[in-house]
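Students often ask why we bother encoding 3D structure as a string. The short answer is that it lets us treat folding as translation between two languages. Here is a chain of 919 residues written in the first language.
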Amino acid sequence: MSSPFSALREQLLDAAEQFAGSPVAVSGILSGLVEDVDRALREELEIFPVCHHSPASALAMVRRLREKQPKVIYLELCEDLQPLLTELRNCRLPVALQAFATDLDGFPKESAPLSVVAPITEASAEYQAISYALETPGVELVLVDRSTDHVFQWEPKQEQPATPKDEEAALHGDAVGVEIGDLRPGFAELEEHLLHHGKVRHWSEWWDQYVEQPLSGADYETYRQVMVLIGSLFRRLRPDSGRLTMDEERERYMWTRMREHLAASGADPADCLYVCGAFHAASHVEQFGLGSTAPYEISPRTGTKWLYGLIPSSYSAIEAQFGLASGSVSIAAATWTKALTRNKLTPFQLEGQKGTRKRAAKLPAPAAPQAEVSDKLTGFLSRPPALDPLDDAELVGWSVDIVRLARRNGYLASTADAIAVYETSILLAGMRNRARPTPYDFQDAAVTCIEKDAVPGRRDIRRLCEILLGGDRVGEVGYDAMPPLARNVYDRLKPLGLDLEKRTIQRALLDLNAEPELVPCSDLLWMLRYLLPSDAVRPIMGERRLGERSIQESWDLAFGKHQRSIIELGYEGVTIEQVLEQRLRRSVHDPKATAAVALAAVEDSILFLGSRRFADELGARAVELLSAERTVDDAPEVLRRIRRLLAYYRANEPELPAWCESFVTTGYAHYCTLLPTAFVDGDTGVRQVAAMLGFLFTMESLALALGCDRAQLELAVQQSHPEAPDKVALLWAAHHQLGLLPIADLRARCDELLANPLVVPSFPLYIMGFVQAMEPAPGLSGFVVEVISKAFGRLPDNVLLPWLPKLITTLRDGAAELVPVLIREAGRTFPGSLTAVDSWVPPWTPRPKPATVTSAPVAAGPVASLLRAHPDTCDAVAGVLGCEGEWSVAGAGENPHREVSALLAEHPEPVLAVAGLFR
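And here it is in the second language, the structure alphabet:
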């Protein structure tokens, strides 16, 4: 059968024989390209090849839809996203269709949540097809690509996307992007070759120069043949990989769905249009074409429940997710707008859509059926592209405007710079074989001429050029297109009187005493603070803690900027309260959850939900987690939170909840069991051991009242034999707290350590142990001040000076809450003025004993007579107390108040002061 491309095939084969040393491979590729074009154009179902976010594809789509006026449009887009298309009327483009899943069935649980997005911009062929189908009566739009469930079924494990770090790129988060017509060389060598010989920097610029501009004014047949040719070239030069296998599976899926729809609806293929990427238009699968009978079985979906919605998108988010050059989508949008004006075309748009001008255009009468395929490629490839002449007014306007923007952003630009940018743009275009400067040439010229030194602010010249040429447009999802939860949030915050759809930061002031109707708004804002990113809802004044509520609050709200996060909350529940409860419950039942996490969840449930039943449920889970823990890494956090919760319940409830009592008894037994091991374990820090002892000693009275045995704690302390100096000091403090080590003996031990030259280098470690000991034994704060003071006075400089930075950092990081205790105790111990320091004697320094008096005191009276008559009782008591002495006999001239007289004689100042008052 003769083909209209036979002559072109012969020309390409002759060229391969002349220029290729081994023409077999080259001729096979070149002839294959022509065969792919011929096959695609001869298909009974008209194939419309597109490239994503391509103005040339959108222009060709507008022209073809007005000529052909198809009754059925098959679109390469996930089939389960179809119900979302009508909601585009309530949005401002660009937005993204999203499928979201958190409860997975058939996928690994650790991969949750799963998210798929399909961005839509006005300058795209898919949007024009959607608008035409939804606004034209009698037209059916059918999405034929694999479902979002199959996207993850077929997704290669090594191609999981990374989370974008750019602020605007985060609009899509870590979602998998779905696009129509991904045209990019699969061989890195081919892309590098094209960029080098095209004298461009990146792929987006090459595509704009060699494809977009030549095809913007081309007729439909030329456009189709060139796009299929490019798709075939990239397909044949793409190495075999998992990506190619997945693309072929998609093609089998789409052709199977189209044949099923045609068979079920009885539609005439002549009235249908198949919109797909140019890569898929040159498909080689056996299921290609309506005449194919090759079977294909579509695998079933998993049991995962998918939720669907719209999220805001932006040009920069699209560029970041799909690997496009910065500013390329903005330039494409500007090219689209200019081409519409130049070609006097009226694009299709959805009725009532935000951010678009109302365009009313009647469809012309349907054109005659498509004529027989003719060869347009030969003429397109053999002649140079028609180059547009220089638009002098446009270039002058760009040059003047970029200088104006640069001056606003701190650059010292002048009219001379505008002239330099103008001339340099023309020069760069000439060096790159262009008749007129492109936006990329202008951008390079502006950076060369104005970016002379350093960037004075956040925006550099390249970013200013992007703003000038169209900027980063950010989409918006309308109120009616939001899920119920997002609409409920906006409704409940209406009393604030703010326009929450703005992307700017807005300040909300709440006087809760004067306006009690704003209390529900405050409660909602605190819940959103917990659920949304930190900069979406930020409190400036006011706080919420257990047992405390603010009288006035001030908030910075950025809902418009974080609309995506609010919408995705709607995928998790119907109300904010339900989402918060689910997240708290999920956090405590996570395999990595700890008792500290569960106690934090209890605290959050009290603060935000106020449900006693739910708090008791989370508290019971905290008891389970504590009893199952085999480490004490979270002991400081557990101690801090359970103390706070017990104080709250004691102040606000008539009795403690049952889970609190169970937590105390379980923790008492649990930490007693682990205490000996923790003391000797090198991986357990002194901070954790101190927190364990703090729990045991501070909760001791409650634990004993609930039935615990104090002997268990005493045995645990007696069985502990640490070797690390800081833990040894901590054990001594525990002995003192149990009454096993008097303060005098503890002081004597520390003095012995300071007197031992072998122990002096490690004495700072003992001090750190005593500092941590203030957690379980706060009564030792005075002794800790004494020990630190002695260390500063007696340690040599070679030990003291290297230790000081460590002491400061340890106090700051590991014992921040103990520093105020130390400071207060030091304030009570040391003198309050510099003049008193010289004469100050430390209270722990032993005072000289008063001179002994030879005469023994003699007591008189009936009691003394009774004791002298029966001395056995007094002797027994004196033996128990360790007192020694002899019985004296009363004399007539003895002073009965000898001790008082001796005291006054040793310290005469008070007596003299009192005597002075009576003079």
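Translate back mentally: Confidence is low (pLDDT under 50) at residues 158-165. Keep this in mind for the problem set.
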